[in-house]
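## retry 2 of 3
previous attempt timed out at serialization; input unchanged, resubmitting
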Amino acid sequence: MASDLTGDPVRLAIAICPLAAYLLLIGFINLRRSPFITSGGRDALALSIGLSGLALIGPLALMMPSWSIRAYGGYAWVIMLTLYFLLVTFVILISRPRIIAYNTTIKNMRPLLREVADSLDPAARWAGESLFLPTMQLHLIMEEDYGTRNVQIKSVGSRQDFNGWRQLELALVKELRQHEKQSTNLYGIFLLAVGLFLLAAVCVQVYMHGNFVDTFLHDFYFDLDI
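## retry succeeded, writing output
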């Protein structure tokens, strides 16, 4: 599995295609002139899918027991990939809740969040960029990534109401439908360009080497009789 990827179109495609798809997705979201809201869990899951190919040909291949190939053939890879996503799910479940707002700024998000917070919890109060909603048991802070024009709403402290975070996310999604349009985010163009370049590179390698399906079945042991 440590062979040169440029001479191995199967492993190159497995490593690059999920990552390229992730870059294209995030690039498209950032090119939208209206903000896009998602939860931290969904954002982390999308990233883990984008990195799954690199994980499969890298650490998962190194940790693969040799006996599993003899016992399960190519399905050993399916088992390893399943374990990878189980680990990702576990990490997401134990992580503190957060909300990601793509293609917006704190300057635009703050009045919207204030309006949503007041409607959900009249006792809500601010301290700088930090917001406390005592009735809903939410304590959060806003952080902006100026380079990508994205805002993260992160939890502060471990005592959080996950149902309250879900209500806050849905309320923000509803409120942002009336949000004014933003200028084009150049970061989205960059991500789309990188994603398309990676896909084109994979397609060229696959075309030059040929027999992609047969090579895949052989290299990943799906042609073994178990």
